[in-house]
Design goal:
The protein is an alpha/beta fold and 391 residues long. It has 2 domains: 17-187, Rossmann fold, CATH 3.40.50; 192-390, Dehydroquinate synthase-like, alpha domain (Up-down Bundle). It has helices at residues 2-5, 28-34, 46-50, 55-63, 80-92, 104-119, 192-211, 217-239, 244-263, 268-280, 284-299, 304-313, 323-340, 357-367, 380-390, and strands spanning 17-20, 40-43, 68-71, 97-102, 128-129, 139-143, 155-156, 170-171, 179-182. The strands form 2 sheets. It has a 6-stranded parallel sheet, sandwiched between helices. A 3-stranded mixed sheet has the order 5-8-7. Helix 7 runs antiparallel to helix 8 (217-239). It is globular. Bound molecules: fe (ii) ion. Residues 148, 201, 205, 270, 284 line the site of fe (ii) ion (FE2).
Length: 391
């Protein structure tokens, strides 16, 4: 903790209002009224629209007498053009408030629309770090998955285009919504594969937030319970999707993990995941899971006391052990949960060949600057070593 005391300050960001609980989605209409919205653009994807998952939101707006139009063109790994398309609709329909409902992609597009709507002609003008200079259009975000904090973070993750998968993010405090709503009932219909992969994102993110070099009392207070709850309830939510207790605690895991990483950061698991995600068409959560035990093993010497805490939070008994022995148990904890969930941590099982590894390391080097708070320093050789261990 000495680095905290010795002269860094920390920033804690969150929406001004988070509404959490069963049936919380019904409060959307009242929240729109309170924010002064008169016409809403709902941003979502066509699968959720067809499955009627957004019904509580639509009904709540109707009860409150708020007209709305729907943009349902969101795709996974959204290319920037979707934000421009949805913003065109927002402008043409003369909307004044955005409601995003869905997984991380829908929430990213909704955040993107709100920032672009008041700042620029096209999304490319506001991509990058704090490029937006004006307050965004007001927005309310509802997550329907267990992904870490898409509904409350200042990050908008987009890809350049459908063909060019390079990351094109917006980082802006204006992307944080006025209201984030987490209603576990919206997550019940998620299939096991999506439950698994989004839940893994939250668990991995909470671990990375706790061990990061800039972890601090504000992030710890959310990261610790997120690791505990995620370890306990992810297998249950995956195995029995209708278990409302598991859904409730996985939603809490997602929210806490999101707050934790915004206050702290993510590290090498995230950094190395993007190259394998696009090379082998793996979801974000699965790419993280494949790398998790290998990165943890590599990172251990950089912050053994924090990894020992991770082990304890994952239910391991660390009493009487040396610090390194205790830290090592965190790696075992990660392996165990992934084994329970049937997730292979071998790149070869996803179609990788050994000859791919230098290219993966090379690609990762392009964005490694964003992950400077990883508990252990990285260079190309070390990154290649982690991919080799994961191969
Ligand atoms: Fe993530």
């Amino acid at each position: 903790m000495s680095e905290i005391i010795e002269g860094k300050s920390y920033v804690f960001l969150s929406p001004s209002k988070i509404i959490f609980g069963m049936g919380a989605a019904k409060s959307v209409g009242d929240e729109v009224k309170r924010l002064g919205g008169s016409k809403v653009l709902i941003v979502t994807d066509s699968i959720l629209l067809k499955a009627d998952v957004i019904r509580p939101v639509v009904e709540s707006l109707e009860t409150a007498g708020i007209p709305h139009v729907i943009y349902d063109g969101v795709e996974p790994d959204p290319p920037t053009e979707l934000v421009d398309e949805a913003t065109d609709k927002y402008r043409k329909e003369r909307c004044d408030l955005v409601v995003g409902i869905g997984g991380a992609s829908s929430l990213d597009v909704a955040k993107g629309v709100s920032v672009v709507a008041t700042n620029s002609e096209k999304v490319m003008d506001v991509c990058g770090f704090e490029q937006a200079t004006k307050r965004a259009a007001p927005k309310i975000l509802l997550s329907t998955t267990h992904t870490a904090g898409g509904e409350l973070s200042p990050y908008v993750i987009m890809h350049m285009s459908r063909e060019d998968h390079s990351l094109m993010p917006i980082v802006s405090e204006y992307a944080i919504p006025e209201v984030a709503i987490m209603d576990p009932l919206l997550t019940v219909s998620m299939p096991p594969s999506v439950t698994l992969e989004t839940g893994l994102d939250s668990l991995v993110t909470a671990i990375e937030a706790l061990v990061a070099a800039n972890a601090n009392p504000f992030s710890d207070v959310f990261a610790e319970p997120a690791i505990k709850m995620g370890t306990e309830y992810l297998p249950v939510a995956w195995a029995k999707g209708s278990n409302l207790t598991a859904r409730y605690f996985m939603c809490l895991t997602a929210t806490f993990s999101g707050i934790a990483f915004v206050a702290s950061s993510v590290g090498a698991v995230h950094a190395l995941s993007y190259a394998i995600g696009s090379a082998y068409h793996l979801s974000h959560g699965r790419s993280l899971a494949v790398l998790l035990p290998h990165v943890m093993k590599f990172n251990l010497p950089g912050n053994p006391s924090r990894y020992a805490r991770v082990a304890a939070l994952m239910g391991k008994s660390i009493e009487g052990l040396s610090l390194m022995e205790a830290a090592q148990l965190a790696v075992e904890g990660a392996k165990e949960i992934l084994q329970t969930l049937g997730v292979s941590t071998r790149l070869r099982d996803y179609g990788a060949s050994e000859g791919d590894l230098p290219r993966l390391a090379d690609e990762t080097m392009e964005t490694i600057g964003f992950f400077g708070y990883n508990p252990r320093d990285l260079d190309e050789e070390k990154i290649r070593g982690i991919y080799q261990a994961a191969y």
